[in-house]
Fold each of these.
Amino acid sequence: MSPDMKGFLLVSVVKLLVIFTALLVGVALMTLMERKVAGWMQNRPGPNRVGPFGILQPAADGIKNFIKEETRPAGANGILFIVAPAFSFIPAMMLLAVIPLAAPLPLQFDVTLPVIGQATYDGLMTVAIADLPIGFLFVLAISSLGVYGVALAGWSSNSKYSLLGGLRAAAQMISYEVAMGLALIPVLLMAGNVSFSEIVSRQQEGLWFIGPLFISFFVFLIAGFAETNRLPFDLPEAESELVAGYHSEYSAIKFSMFMIAEFSHIVTISAMVTTLFFGGWDIPFTTWDEQGGLAQTVVSHLFFFGKMFFWIFFVMWIRWTLPRFRYDQLMSLGWKVLLPIALAYILVTAGAIWGIDRGLGWTDPRRQAQALLGLNLVLGWLLFYVLDRGRVVRGVGAVGRTVRVPVRAAVEG
Amino acid sequence: MAIGVKVMQRPAHDVSYIRATLKGMVLTFKHMFQPRVTLQYPEVRSSDDWRIATRWRGTHRMLTDEQGRSKCVACGLCPQICPANCIKLVPGEDEAGHRYPLIYEIDEFRCVFCGYCQEVCPEEAIHVGVHYENAEYSRDRFVYDLERLSAQVHPVSTLWDPTDPRGE
């Protein structure tokens, strides 16, 4: 093996260790954050018994889940029941691997290590475990795999609640996968590439895609909530109907794995929203972060983290604000509202980009983005004012059939 | 739609989901910065705006006279009226003809804390108290004998006064 290859592997292993450790610790802290945010929003202090401000609560939970008894329901499918948490856990962990977390770091070393031998590295190191050329296609593909874990967990538990939860999860995740994928097509049209690095650099040249592709962002955000099975789309684990849904029968560390999977999905969705629509690690109003260097990497990561943190908070914020959808509302929102919006938006964006490119002949990315921003302001107004105010669509899934309330009619008559 | 869902005709501003969502988010966000109402219980047991009511009916207490003897004359009214049948009373009588309880036990597990024993007591001996921390390590510790009832020091319940129904 050449020293180049060894250097690459060495760097990759270090990145793997650092990023996955950070992810797992972050997920643990997110459980605390979720409970704190929940508490604050209900005028409670949240967990504050274990350690200062409850900071050791995740450790206490983790230890508890490790030493708890594992239960297995009678009649559960032995192998699938054990494998299902892993099916849920592993894809969730893999997702963050492709997202660039900071500006690329120029790195150069030539070392001779004991067992490995000579290892060299020279060039820009992307701060992502693997900056795959297929970019968000990888995320879409792997995140759909998570549904296997959920559906198998539901089926193998031999419990009606779990089965219903698993079925709901499967239907919901597949439905929203469609809207999510289609919402990302305009991003592809704008960036001309599916690679996350390219999307970020395209946003640095132009505007953050939140402006020019606002409707995409909106659809992606809603579909992302549904993908993570979080409120208001947590039908798979609706506790008032299904006990705990697909993980009703799980205990101890297997249950923890589902929780870790859920939280790392939140991290991934937040990171994706950040990368695709908020410029990733881009620091706004400056080009300093594109020069390359250790300081730039660190500061741009802080910016990335800040943006991601906001979206993580946003997920929790929504959770404690909105109630759960009814299941038919969930399905009609996905298929009858989000999917047509995403499809129409692809047409509009494609047409607009074509028009700007060919018709007006503007090739400057910033100018293009500004033109699209103008278009999106109009579209956003249409979406929120006209559609949402019930002038065109009366409620999600309504088909224009109204029922007169008889009591009121009698009083009026 | 398979199920016939009733769709109400409401004014447009009432059916705006995004508007309602944003309003809800503003509300929850405001709540994050409001003062916490939680009482940090084992350390803090009461605050200015929360204290246990004087009419609280909790752990029983037997009052004693100046010589430290129980005021109870073993008349038998409290076991008679007790709806949960949780009071065990064996009366005794000394040489001077004074009746006193040989055994007086209250099973706090059976007790429903109605306060009838306090109401019915002619000597104002047995009381329900303003006290609620009764945890023990074994079940038999919940049967309070006379000695233990007399040793309680918490304030006694004022019960409900018909002439002052709101406790003013």
Amino acid sequence: MSTFDATGSDARRPFTGRRARPGDLLLQGVAALAALGATVLVVLIAYKVVDGARLSLSTFGLGFLTHTVWDPVHGRFGAAEFLGDTALTSIGALVLATPLALGIALFLTELAPRWVRGPVTALVETLAAIPSVVIGLWGILVLGPVMRDHVIPALHSVLGFIPLFGPASTGSTVFTAIIVLTIMILPIVSSISRELFLGVPAELKEAAFGLGATRWEVVRGVMFPYARGGVAAAMILGLGRAVGEAIAVAQVIGAFDNGFSWNLGNPGDTLAAKIALDYQGATTKLEISSLFYLGVILLVFSLVVNLLAQWIVRRVSRRQGLAR
Amino acid sequence: MSTFESSPSPLTRPQDRLRRRRATSRGMELLAWLAAAIAVAILGVVVYSVARRGASQLNLDLITKAPVPFAIGNVKQGLANAFVGSLVLVALAAAMALPVGILVAIYLNEFAPGPVKSAVSLVLDVLNGIPSIVIAIFVFGLLVVGHGQSGLAGSFALATLMLPLVARATMEVLALVPDSLREASLGLGVPRWRTTLSIVLPQTIGGVITGAVLAVARIAGETAPLLFTSSIVGNAVEWNPTKALQSVPVAIWELSESPTPADHARAWAAALVLLLFILCASLGARWLASRSRRKLGRATR
């Protein structure tokens, strides 16, 4: 009887030792060890980063988050300015990337001729493969000067009454960082949105078309509501990526940490970029520990972002599972 | 029909409204086309910028000659130390991450009970979401403080980034292997470990290679994890991973911060080589993936 037990649903259950052979135990043991190792690794990352920040945590406490000065000479450190610039760059990138990504996803699922879809999908995803240091190199030497000489002055002359669009002082600006981040998160948001749009049941769309809706009305009335939760998750993941990006931002943003400004034409500094730029410059224990504190903020944020996105996806898929 | 409409003003007759709705739809379609065109144009502009500036600097010296500090005049110099360093770092990282990642995937797909599977999958997602700069300071705190920088520390940081990518890719292909194959093998009395290693795993080899190539392409361009772990280096070519090794991304990063145009030129050339490698690897992997998926799809039918 027991010889047939290893079929069907039982085939995936772990061996309980009933008829386990040494080879089975060995493979299962080694594989389980690897999985345990991956789990321990994540715990170890959290522990080590918090451990490195301990001195700064006990010195500044939560006041670190609201304190604006980063002054290695007098040993006073605060992250408020980096938090401000991080919010400005990542939200700015999200604002630019989301409509673009939705447009790309719609193009790829609804509009493009069949022979165009494959190549364009591959090209957009290739954008994600470009290393951040190369995008940063392009950002600092090509995009930065163009932004300073043309884009920012043009926006300033038209929209100058909004504090965001002030004049540009140097080639390293927050705005350049926003564009660079937009390029980097565009593929993530668009590829997730594309999959969501592909998942919209054809009956729903056909029903709307049958009622005489135009294509845009189908998109707005059927596809967007259906994919809303998933798009939110995609945006959150894109935001997480933008917040965590260090290298490209550090190259283009100008490493300016003497006060936050709303003007996108000014240089600035984000959490991740600050860590990357100070990798060799930090000398005192307190400064190194404060850099770890910035890392703690990033780590907590990335955890929240991932769990939130997972939660949304799970909720949405359960609801849609019930709807069918 | 129009008789039922409340107060049909002469300006919004039904056919006018239909025309307007169609125009809106057309306009939105145009915007979607435009969005796709912008994305492709961005890729084109970035690749073209790198190619145009890098190509003129591209010669064998870049790969065979070490950099010369304070070079005056037309000295032949390259970034041999960076290319050798990247080779060693990426090879070591792959050697660490590939077996562990594949084993994790085997455990989750073939052995783990449901709750454990979803818990560890979540852990992998979390690991994948941790910014590389945080991985960098983690490895700095774990291996560099007190011991100094080394290629091993750098490749460990890269392996940490690579692990979730490999595990996830392997899990995806393992899930495609039909259960009937496992059942047939187990039914013939083949032990489970041999079923897994010599029946199930060979089916996935194409997908695993694809995942591995994509992961290698991803980490070959990573700068942040190496800044803290393997960046304080000399100009000599170094193969020994117990010393700090230069790498291509870190070299580009340093040269891009330099004020000299000659350094920028070398940065563009190195960026071009890196970009070519990554684009070839990821496009090749994609092609391989579509091929092996088609094959697996046929097997299931």
